[in-house]
Write the structure tokens for this entry.
Amino acid sequence: MIHQFCSITSIEKLNPSIIKIKFKSPLIAQSAKQGQFVNIRIDETSVPLLRRPFSIYYTTEEEVEIVVGVMGMGTKKLTHKQVDDTLDIIGPLGKPFKLDDGEDISILVGGGLGAAPLPMLFRSLQRLKKNIVIFLGAKNKEYLLKDYLPAKYISTDDGSEGYKGNIVSLLDNYLSNSAGKSYKIYACGPTPMLIELIKVARKFNINCEISLETMMACGTGICQGCAVKSKNSSKKYLLSCVDGPVFNAKDIEL
Ligand SMILES: Cc1cc2nc3c(=O)[nH]c(=O)nc-3n(C[C@H](O)[C@H](O)[C@H](O)COP(=O)(O)OP(=O)(O)OC[C@H]3O[C@@H](n4cnc5c(N)ncnc54)[C@H](O)[C@@H]3O)c2cc1C
Ligand code: FES
């Protein structure tokens, strides 16, 4: 885990509610793995007091990129940052997606900005020469995170791009017509989507890893603020920040 003050190298406002920030940190960039996150102290004031977690969206040798959806005070303040401003960052944190459980086809499913961990995962699976199929869904086309991701199946709730409806029903259809291969599902997105997705994974008996966006504070296992119910009899709760945010769906209760 690295704690660094990092300069912002680029800020791109995609629309009033979504920004992409790149910051310079060769150390974090080169050690980050698919599914990990950084915890950012927004500024020196006490509002917000706690750091805010963001998935590592993409890395180069020198830089780390995150995508930020404006939710409340912390993310709003991030939209006022400028190139050369400094961010106080801890990372990379959390357990990454486990690559390659021997599946014939790796299925990546992302919902809205929750899809942010997928580009890193896609790149890692590509390096392993896996067959990859990508499903991306969002409430409208502005929330589809398509950069770096050649998504074959796209859905939006309002029909502004792709299939009008739910990405999990597209996945269900795809699997109903794809017998004879072994699959693994890697998914991230809002909890209601993940709950429905786990039902589909169970229906087809497919190994499934999910990345949760449980609310966090310390991000390092100290405050116990990110507990997730465990299905493992030896441990009642797991901590999303250190045991996750990526979990095998069979290990937790949502
Ligand atoms: C591991 C992890 C990775 C994340 N990655 C990303 C990312 O790549 N891009 C991104 O835009 N966001 C991501 N988030 C969510 C992001 O951390 C929150 O949106 C952010 O902390 C909100 O801070 P705020 O001060 O703006 O909002 P607050 O003022 O703290 O809250 C505003 C509203 O947002 C809700 N909220 C706060 N945190 C969360 C959360 N974790 N999940 C759902 N609702 C929340 C609150 O309940 C409240 O209604 C991630 C969260 C986790 C735990
Ligand atoms: S956020 Fe503090 S223990 Fe997980």
Summary: The chain has a mean pLDDT of 96.
